[in-house]
Amino acid sequence: MAMNMENSSKDLVNEVDHVDMLDASFDAYEGVIINIKNDMDENVFTALLQTSISQWRQQGKKGVWLKLSLEHVNLVKPAVKEGFWYHHAEPTYAMLVYWIPETNHTLPPNASHRVGVASFVVNNNGEVLVVQEKSGAFKGTGVWKLPTGTVEEGEDISAAAIREVKEEAGIDTEFMEVLAFRQSHKSFFSKSDLMFVCMLKPTSLDIEKQDSEIEAAQWMPVEEYANQAFVKKHKSFDYIAKICIAKKDNKYVGFSPLLTTTASSAKKSYLYSNYQLEQ
């Protein structure tokens, strides 16, 4: 009888000590990252989530990150019911967040900017590469503009400028400098926009335009590009054109890429500067 009571006591202790929780890892900011690997019933998920948050609250945790792949989209609704909200989404997942303390949250916001490039490609004859677009705001306007595009995830500004010129006009180039950049707001689904104007040196001259997006492409004297009525009418375009002319005439110094690393990573990155390294 005594043995049975002892075993029962041990079972009770083990039951109290063992609490089913969601699989998760912790970050350096007292945050929690939930790892959903297998399909899960919504009711089971809700029970585990409630228990987990209770435990994390006792542990002093703060932000909770819940990454749900397309296969686990059924868990979005129960998570929202428990107080989670959307942080961001990508093609293969949605990220939801929750703040445990009874204070204003300090979670970092979603990306605030989209990054674009405009490429000033000038040949030895003082001609700039210009294009007319088949769609968008410039469709059917007859305006000649610099090749432009969006920087892809994980892509350097310099690489994006080279890629966009190759895609739109078939011209191979060498990146030289960032000449200027412009910031605007509420330009793309409420996001801000950073546009970097880059100077590139052509290493080929025969144009092969992109038929799907580009109506026409050609080499044009820089002054002719700058004197277009549209460019003259809009200050930002006019300023950029004047900067390009000044650079062509060697009266302007832009920012060249310096290969370096950041303090938090050994990965190579670029610092754009007009600092002249000693040879």
How many domains is the backbone divided into?
A: 2
Which class best fits the helix and strand makeup? alpha+beta
CATH superfamily of the largest domain: Nucleoside Triphosphate Pyrophosphohydrolase
Give the CA-CA distance, first to last residue: 89 Å
Helical residue percent band: 25-40%
SS element count, helices: 7
Q: What's the overall geometry?
A: elongated
User: What is the architecture of the largest domain at the second tier of CATH?
Assistant: Alpha-Beta Complex
Secondary-structure element order, N to C:
HEEHEHEEEEEHEEEHHHEE
> How many β-strand runs?
13
Query: Mean of residue pLDDT?
Result: 90
Poorly predicted segments: 1-18
CATH class category of the largest domain = Alpha Beta
The fold-level CATH name of the largest domain is Nucleoside Triphosphate Pyrophosphohydrolase
Proportion of residues in β-strands:
25-35%
